[in-house]
Amino acid sequence: MIEVVETGRYTSIQDRGRPGLERFGIPTGGPADWFSAAVANRLVGNQPDAALIEVTMTGPTLRFEREVTIAVTGAAVADVGDANWRAHRAGAGSVFHLGRVGPGLRSYLAIRGGIDVPLVLGSRSLCGVGGFGGGVGRPLRKGDRLAVGGMVEAAALQEPWSASHRLAMRGPWEIHVIPGPHTDAFHESVLHRLSATACLVTPALDRMGVRLDTPGLHLDGAEALTTPMTAGAIQVTTSGGLIALLADHPTTGGYAVIATVITADLPLLAQARPGDTMRFREVSVTEASRAWRRLAGWLDLSA
Amino acid sequence: MWGIAPAGDRALLVTLGETIDPTLLGQVLALDRVLNDQRPAGLLSSVPAYASLLCRFDPDLTNAGRLGEVIRQVEGRLDASIPTRPVVDILTRYDGADLAEVALRTNLTPAGVINAHAGREYLVYCIGFAPGFTYCGTLPDELVVPRLSSPRVRVPSGSVAIAGRQTGVYAVASPGGWNLIGRTALQLFDAGATPPVRFKPGDRIRFVPAR
Question: Pairing mode, if any, of strands A233-236 and B88-93?
């Protein structure tokens, strides 16, 4: 068992989420930074579906009752030493302190075997708004106890994850987008002007989305008829700000979407910190696909 | 003509219209049915709402262009009638935090608001936003009020609310910007049930004042 001795800012259990249940208003969920989470599972030899721990801004302190093999990826964590982007054995009775996170916003702690909490609607991920999943239906708290599962598929990797196969964890961010789907709601010059603007990440962010300001650029957002949303959708609000959606986004929304972040860049959107600047650059679907294949290739190459 | 546009690199958004209209909902639901029956290669799932349908796909198996063509082929050929189902009563205690304010804004008494809201049948247009949130329409003209100027951080589960021409029920506690006029004990979301939601688009409901 693993005991949560102290919790961090927002520490939750995540697996690959609940795709396909959006028609019930259930967010897809899963790790905000899918790439770092996948690497963490790979490092410890887990199946891709194994549940791990997502940490935001500050991490938890955990006590391992038995020896476990762990790895920490994503945003930098100063205190974790040997577990940083590599598989590391933590002894029985050891206390593991994740401390402050950054640069980057979210770190992933995988434990060999995965976190064993009940499947709810097909997933172990916490659904924060629904109050279910993640073992306890809420972020982890001091005193929670977690079991380790048996979802392994390979030996843990011996080497640290190659630094050339990691994503940058520091702004200024360049995020690639595909225009639309609501291109008709905006004059065609608007996306060009937005691309030329250094957007500012505000402190209003969580697993649902990130609010951004657009200094020097006034955008006219409009309320639209409630329509389904996707992760990466960049909504323009009626006050002219942007909301870029993340894994736990509301399944529907009422603002027009000017552009959508490509799947390969969702991890970057998830790692941006308040005060960082971000530029959006338009790409084609072909480029989006190439960018995704590059990351998928990194995950395969290290097999 | 339907709008068919990429929503990122793994989804397509089909926009059938821009208004709250039972005919449009009928078309959305018919398209949803056809796609789920035919299962074109690479289609993973679809999400219906009011007048649009999101189609998520696996980019290794299809692409936006190919899926868009399949959708174009059925445009104008759908049976858009909504199957008639029995009306479900939602027993509602009309004691919402915004009832008095809504009465002021609409020049009605609180009893008048209740009569206007409870006195008709509604169509479920969408389950969205948060688990089980049930969007219904349409409200009578006399009850149309804007959303709150600043949303509440937490709206209790079961809250019955109105905004614009819509009325809805918050199935789980969540943030929310609609005007709260009442509350029901009916459970609209249960993570342990199959399906996990009480209603689906196309259902008919009626709010019945609890004594």
Answer: unpaired
For an interface test with A, the pick among B9, B46, B169 (most A C-beta atoms closer than 10 Å) comes out as B9
> Residue B184 forms beta bridges with which residues?
B92
The predicted structure's pLDDT at residue A301: 64
H and E: helices and strands count for chain A: 4, 19
Alpha carbon A16 to chain centroid, angstroms: 11
Residue B137's Cβ-side half-sphere holds a number of Cα atoms within 13 Å equal to 24
Distances (CA, A) of B129 to A20, A252, B132, B177: 15, 5, 8, 12
Closest CA to B135 of B11, B56, B47, B43: B47
Q: Please indicate whether, in this complex, the C-beta atoms of A230 and B8 are within 8 angstroms of each other.
A: yes
Nearest CA-CA distance, residue A279 and chain B, Å: 17
Check: pTM over 0.90? Answer yes or no: yes
CB distance A170 to A104 below 8 Å: yes
Tokens 């290669």: give the residue. B41
Q: Does A303 have pLDDT greater than 50? A: no
The sign of the CA dihedral A122, A232, A110, A146 is: negative
Cβ-defined contact of A252 to B126 (cutoff 8 Å) = yes
CA distance B210 to chain A (A): 27
Per-residue model confidence as pLDDT tens digits over A122-170: 999 999 999 999 999 999 999 999 999 999 999 999 999 999 999 999 9
What's the Cα-to-Cα distance from B135 to each of A25, A190, B139, B151, rounded to whole Å? Answer: 11, 32, 11, 17
Q: Which residues of A touch B127 (CB under 8 A)?
A: 23-25
Pairing of strands A199-205, A277-282: antiparallel
Phi–psi pair at B153, nearest 5 degrees: -70, -35
Query: What is the residue type of A46?
Result: N
Which of B123, B116, B132, B106 is CA-nearest to residue B182?
B116
**ipTM of this complex:** 0.97
What does the pLDDT read at residue A263? 98
